[in-house]
């Protein structure tokens, strides 16, 4: 292995010293080679991309659609995105000036934060939350400010938000994830309006991560962008809604002046998205069959959710019933090991079942585990048998 003297003289961006590896992927990598392991760790849809979407990608390839596009993405895709956001959520965005195509929602978030953060600017993050948010803020010189909402049913309240704003300086943005990863909790229209009343009095940018918006089970999804459009950048895409994680197509939508600046960073980072992937995403967002594709997946996820909630409740786990996404965030029963990291590793060791320790999602995640139900019902039944065996064995050992 080549060793560089440059490693020793501190050639790297100092912000990297503040960044931690993803606890989700680190844990997943460590346990992946365990024999007979059953993993419910990664948020990866288990469905195949629909054939009519794949056909459009193949058509693009066969038509030699292999040249540079524009950094904001093909106009046909942005028009499809505009149609999709209006059809589903009653949002009105101009395809030319208010939408850009990103390399998944992740690159969109990175380009956004890189565009707005100066040194020590703060980003409010209600937790438990997707760990990438905090690390991307740090990479770009910002400071994440965690707001533990675990005592409020995992919902940020207006009173709590107002108190944080009153005590923190240099707040540049807040990230509101709806539906939530890791909890699956969703915000109602009234709850979002309450937050909007507080934020409207400030110059804080709202980053609305709504990548799971199509997987909302118990009510119609309400977008923060519909309530506070002039102050919101919306993040969405086709990864979760259409099982297209590998196609890497995300969307940013917002006021034209903000989108123009974000597109400057975005363009320098990626130049242009892939043409076949954009063609496929265009079909996913505006194709006549695409809405039904998502409904089929959503029905399956809801069945899995209901099954897990019932089985885990019987085992003594407590959880907020997820209103969206495809995660269960469950409190470890009090009579079992409350160290969620130790619990997760022991579960792997004893039953070859992998779930993600909740503390990796920030304050409020301690003593919880996250289970992804982006897996077949058959796999989930095996998982619940293993979890039941684990709990019974632990409880029996305490008696003996």
Automatic annotation (TrEMBL):
GO annotation, biological process: amino acid metabolic process
Which Gene3D superfamilies does the record match to this protein?
Answer: Aspartate Aminotransferase, domain 1, Type I PLP-dependent aspartate aminotransferase-like (Major domain)
Pfam families named among the record's database cross-references:
Aminotran_1_2
State the UniProt keywords alphabetically.
Aminotransferase, Pyridoxal phosphate, Transferase
A GO MF annotation of the entry reads:
transaminase activity
Q: What is the enzyme's class at the highest EC level?
A: transferase
Q: Where is the Aminotransferase class I/classII large domain?
A: 36-387
Q: Which cofactor does it need?
A: pyridoxal 5'-phosphate
Q: Which SUPFAM superfamilies does the protein's record reference?
A: PLP-dependent transferases
**Record EC number:** 2.6.1.-
Q: Which family does it belong to?
A: Belongs to the class-I pyridoxal-phosphate-dependent aminotransferase family.
Give the matching PANTHER family.
AMINOTRANSFERASE, ASPARTATE AMINOTRANSFERASE
Any idea what this protein is called?
Answer: Aminotransferase
């Amino acid at each position: 292995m080549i060793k560089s003297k440059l490693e020793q003289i501190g050639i790297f961006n100092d912000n990297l010293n503040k960044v931690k590896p993803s606890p989700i992927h680190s844990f997943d990598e460590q346990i992946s080679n365990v024999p007979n392991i059953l993993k419910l760790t990664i948020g990866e849809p288990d469905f195949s991309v629909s054939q009519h979407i794949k056909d459009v990608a193949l058509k693009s390839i066969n038509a030699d659609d292999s040249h540079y596009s524009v950094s904001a993405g093909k106009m046909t895709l942005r028009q499809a995105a505009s149609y999709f956001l209006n059809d589903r959520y009653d949002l009105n965005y101009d395809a030319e000036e208010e939408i850009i195509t990103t390399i998944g929602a992740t690159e969109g978030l990175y380009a956004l934060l890189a565009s707005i953060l100066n040194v020590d600017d703060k980003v409010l993050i209600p937790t438990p939350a997707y760990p990438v948010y905090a690390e991307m803020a740090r990479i770009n010189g910002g400071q994440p400010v965690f707001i533990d909402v675990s005592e409020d049913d995992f919902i940020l309240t207006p009173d709590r938000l107002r108190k944080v704003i009153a005590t923190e300086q240099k707040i540049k943005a807040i990230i509101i994830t709806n539906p939530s990863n890791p909890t699956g909790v969703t915000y109602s229209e009234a709850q979002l309006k309450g937050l909007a009343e507080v934020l409207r009095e400030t110059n804080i940018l709202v980053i609305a991560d709504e990548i799971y918006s199509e997987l909302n089970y118990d009510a119609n999804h309400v977008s923060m962008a519909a309530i506070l459009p002039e102050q919101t950048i919306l993040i969405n895409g086709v990864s979760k809604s259409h099982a297209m994680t590998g196609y890497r197509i995300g969307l940013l939508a917002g006021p034209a002046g903000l989108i123009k600046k974000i597109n400057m960073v975005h363009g320098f980072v990626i130049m242009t998205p892939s043409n076949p992937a954009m063609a496929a995403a265009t079909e996913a967002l505006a194709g006549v069959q695409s809405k039904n594709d998502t409904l089929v997946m959503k029905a399956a996820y809801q069945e899995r959710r209901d099954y897990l909630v019932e089985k885990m409740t019987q085992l003594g786990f407590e959880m907020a019933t997820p209103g969206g996404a495809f995660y269960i965030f469950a409190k470890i029963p009090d009579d079992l090991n409350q160290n969620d990291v130790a619990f997760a590793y022991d579960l792997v060791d004893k039953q070859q079942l992998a779930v993600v320790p909740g503390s990796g999602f920030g304050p409020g995640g301690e003593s919880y585990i996250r289970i992804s139900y982006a897996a077949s019902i058959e796999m989930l039944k095996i998982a619940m048998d293993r979890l039941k065996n684990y709990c019974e064995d632990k409880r029996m050992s305490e008696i003996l």
